[in-house]
Amino acid sequence: MIIMYECVAGILHTIFFHRTLTLVRPKDVDCDLFEITYVQCGLAELEKEVDEKINQFIAWAEKHPNRKSQVCLSFFDEKNKHPGWFSSKTERVYWEQWFINLHVTSPKGQGKSRGSKAPANTKGQALEETSSRRDALSLLIQEVLFQIINYANEKKDHIPPISDRIFNHEILVPSSSDSV
What we know:
Blueprint: H1 2-19, E1 27-30, E2 37-40, H2 44-63, E3 67-80, E4 90-104, H3 120-154, E5 168-172
Antiparallel strand pairs: 1-2, 3-4, 3-5
Helix pairs in contact: 1-2, 1-3
């Protein structure tokens, strides 16, 4: 599940870094499994929030193996609704949403008996296949991070005026009741 964690963390932190227009302390993060470095905002509260949401997603994915799913990062403004007789509520006006589509798969052979004695050649092939998949995933993540950076740099007209705090946001992950 560390692969899933690193993939989602890299994507979310890259989006936040390129959409956080306040003063931050950039922090380079080297992925343990991939030859990829991404930048975090260096905001402890944000790092904790992202970590919690990713762990929620991983818990969901463990209960729903081999499923497609989505993580959504939304940025919004809060506007006061016209007050009624008994309410003065605010409404969220979303100005940007990032949908991260994920297909979480279990490694081949998972769930089979652990005591089986496979020939050394089969084990070597499995390691080579795992390495090949990891390399392909690394390239895919690099491509996604570059797409995020390009989009964030090109599309700025819809962003509200800069304030002295991080933009309002929410990270939605599937809940335990979602079966997708």
